[in-house]
Amino acid sequence: MRIAGNYTFEATREEVWSAIRNPEVMARAIPGCQHLDHVGDDEYETTVKIALHAVRGVYHGRVKIDNLVTPESYAIHVEGKGSNGFLKGTGTIKLRDEGSTTILDYGGEAHIGGAIASVGQRLIDGAAKTLINQNLKALADLIESRRSGELAPVEMEPVAAPAPVEVVVPELSPAPSFERRVIIVPAHEQLSEADVARGAVENFLKEQSWLPWVIVAFLIGYILGHRK
């Protein structure tokens, strides 16, 4: 399955880059994200609950980011599995200026297996597009909240490191310090099933702009018909 698209943010490229590189912000923006574990340099583990019928389930995954070009682009590697299947994919995120706005271009390829692979390609593509759009829309709202200072910190639980063991080793270059932590998204701040469902309807109506007029015409005809 190939995925590609873009989203326009009413923000500078630096603001968007800062947001997508902030684990606390991304944890809030991912639909159904229950927690995000920062397990290494640019490496994360997460649990996501997805409510869309085509891909409904709870998924556990690992995300690795590399090839960073600040503040322009990076590569992303994803592995995930749930009770109904698994996914493995790679992609790229790129930012470009356009006037006072910033356009985020995304693209990638995913391989799906298990029971979920039996779902029609069209349904999977639609579910992926809905989840990505909701993620980016939530990200845009969070960027605005950060700008106005309304975004409160997400609860974080540091993970205790094992007791140190004294070992004599040859002198080496110091390793980069890293503190593992778990970012928990409060239930009231998660993108709920209703939010995702509402977003799916909004996306559908945008793509089928003629549909509301057909519904209105049908209702008018129905009312007039019953008046006779």
Shape: globular
**Uncertain residue segments:** 154-161
Q: What do the pLDDT scores average to?
A: 78
Give the N-terminus to C-terminus distance in angstroms: 53 Å
CATH class: Alpha Beta
Strand/helix succession: EHHEEEEEEHEEHH
Based on helices, strands and strand pairing, what is the structural class?
A: alpha+beta
> What is the makeup of the main sheet?
9 strands, antiparallel
The number of distinct helices, counting runs of at least 4 residues, comes to 5
- The number of domains is 1
Radius of gyration from the CA trace? 21 Å
Question: How are the strands of the largest sheet arranged?
Answer: 1-7-6-5-4-3-2-9-8
Q: Beta-strand level of the residues, as a percent range? A: 35-45%
CATH topology: Alpha-D-Glucose-1,6-Bisphosphate, Chain A, domain 4
- Oligomerization state: single chain
Helix content: 25-40%
* CATH homologous superfamily grouping: START domain
- Which CATH architecture would you pick? 2-Layer Sandwich
Query: How many strand segments?
Result: 9
